[in-house]
Amino acid sequence: MMWSNFFLQEENRRRGAAGRRRAHGQRRSGLTPEREGKVKLALLLAAVGATLAVLSVGTEFWVELNTYKANGSSVCEAAHLGLWKVCTKRLWQADVPADRDTCGPAELPGEANCTYFKFFTTEENARIFQRTTKKEVNLAAAVIAVLGLAVMALGCLCIIMVLSKGAEFLLRVGAICFGLSGLLLLVSLEVFRHSVRALLQRVSPEPPPAPRLTYEYSWSLGCGVGAGLILLLGAGCFLLLTLPSRPWGSLCPKRGHRAT
To answer: Would you say residue 219 has pLDDT above 90?
Structure first.
């Protein structure tokens, strides 16, 4: 009988300690399961935008430059570039669709030559099809994109702290970070568009003559646009979560509490 009481008291003590630890964890987190689920859904949306942003900034298919098909030649030239490097390609005209007047698309197999822009190291403009880049505009687009990624990483850290430590005041900070990163990415895209226009206008007078070019924006830039919009949407979701629930409850009263 004495041993049974001892084991019963020991079991009650362990259960009480476990209950106190759970209660302490709930007080520390400060998030209800419903609210925590909403934060995780908004974080998942922001994670999709972050993935697209990293994919966009890290690839070089922002714009394709296509020369016109040369009569009597079996090859033609195209190029695709992004924030960091440019790739020129020699394509077989037999692989180019017959309904195209220009060479491309750049995804076709061919001889590729990819180089990083020299203005990041030696501050020299790059030459693409007898045209020179405007390094100030290209550098501005790259710096703005990197700042957007840095702010986005800070926003992810804030939301992780909310979920792990219950620091709900960081929700607003995370929302601002994600909104700012989305805006920075969209601004970087616009600056890059200006750099492409400047490239097409800066024709070198030196021989050989510059070929006629057409350009089309590619999937990397589309990923950047999608990333900026999704990050802005995620920022809006986090801002909604920071609003008090009482005003929403007064606007949408429950059926069981109708006014008589």
So the answer is: yes
Instruction: Give the whole-angstrom CA distance, residue 223 versus residue 53.
Output: 7
Contact 192, 7 (CB under 8 A): no
Helix 219-242, helix 135-165: angle, nearest 10: 40
Radius of gyration of the chain (CA): 28
Residue 128 to residue 199: CA distance in whole angstroms? 8
Rounded to two decimals, what is the model's pTM? Answer: 0.79
Crossing angle of helices 219-242 and 33-58, rounded to 10°: 160
**CA distances from residue 53 to 56, 81, 112 in whole angstroms, order as listed:** 5, 17, 25
- Angle, CA 213 vertex, CA 210 and CA 214 arms, to 5°: 170
Structural tokens at position 198: 């400047």
- For residues 33 and 30, give the distance between their C-alpha atoms in angstroms, rounded to a whole number: 10
Place of tokens 């180019």: 96
> Can you give the pLDDT at residue 18?
58
In this predicted structure, the answer to whether residue 251 has a pLDDT above a threshold of 80 is no
Q: CA of 255: how far to CAs of 34, 175, 244, 249, 250, in Å?
A: 21, 33, 21, 12, 12
Amino acid identity of residue 222, one-letter, is G
Enter the DSSP assignment of 118.
Answer: G
Q: Are strands 110-116 and 127-128 parallel, antiparallel or unpaired?
A: unpaired
Per-residue pLDDT, 6:
47
- Spatial separation of the C-alpha atoms in residues 204 and 130, rounded to whole Å: 6
Q: Rounded to whole angstroms, how far apart are CA atoms 223 and 188? A: 13
